[in-house]
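Incident log, structure service

09:12 report received: a user says their structure output differs between two submissions of the same chain.
09:20 pulled the input from the user's history:
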Amino acid sequence: MLARTRISLATTTLLLLGSTSAFAVDADAFAQRLKAVAQKQNMSLSFDSIEAEGENVVLKGVSGGEADENGKVAEITFENVSGSTADGWDVERIAFPDFDETEDGVRTRIGGVVIEGMELVGTTATDVPAAMKFSDFYFQGASIGSLEVEKDGKTVFSLADASLNNEIGDDGTFTADFDFGDFTADLTTGEDAEATKAVQEIGYGKLSGTIAGSATWNPTSGLLELDPFDIEVKNAGDLSVTYGISGYTPAFIESLQQLQQQMAASPDNQQASGMAVMGLISQLYLNSAEITFVDDSLTGKLLDYYAGKNGQTREQLIQGLTGMLPMFLSYLQNPEFQKAVTDAVTAYLTDPKSLSISIDPANPVPVTQLIGAAMGAPQTLPSVLSLTVSAND
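09:34 re-ran on a clean worker, output below:
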């Protein structure tokens, strides 16, 4: 019994001592797959060493290409790595070290960079979502805690709490929601003294605001939508952009990748590349688009500034601007559209609230048709696109 007990204890001890290596991830295989996926995106990834710490993989001396010691990231830890090169790799979390570098008097600091839910597609994997198929890469979320740029000891740009969240639905639809957080920009540090003086006189020496948006791609229909992309600047205004493009299918992406490779291999064959590009563009359609600006004092400040520069009143400046519109729009040879635009711009400048440009055709319009109309018959564009301009809606 004593002998058997000693054997059992010895066996248990060996298992415990060997558990770390027994359950450790294959760090080298993971790193090589990561390198191959990066190369597929035309990115060169290198590292000085690879280490496994249980289920974590640590890459040291990481760089995105040929870099000296100052251009390398000292250490990146991939947490809770599982899988294989054949079946695919999953990474629960990647936390990047803080970045602090000064070059030519400009100091850049980035902190709190995290990627969560990263996946690398396996080399033998089947039934791969289209959103991952052409990159072999996907992540559920990423965030940046802070970014700050200093010039000569003065902060010229800062960003806080930026995030990006991705999702692939059961039908394969890919959705991305991004929020670039709160930003501030100091425009008084520019090298153009005249421009710097102008922005200060207008009242925008320093800007702050937010940038956010959402995009959706349906691989089956090839519909790519940006709805919306919003830039809001405090005490200036809110710019919102939306659009829908169809024809952006997996086959289109594959053809685009092949064309990029061909152009890289034969950079001098521009004629053939141009024809190939036009062939690809012919597969795309414009479904809709809209640009809307909601004013928050920017328009009034600009009008007052330039009126003062010209020795005019605001009303005189508005009359001069709207009086030039018919001349600028005359090349369209579309009097009805010309009047609609002039009326909308006049209404907006007189009482700045909002200005919108909308494209909403009854059926998606081939991009090649738009190019042809713009070059040969620009007067048809408003009707082809169902283009409207409205103010203060």
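09:41 both user submissions now match this output. Likely a transient worker issue. Closing.
09:42 reviewer note: The radius of gyration is 28 Å. The chain is about 35% helix and 40% strand.
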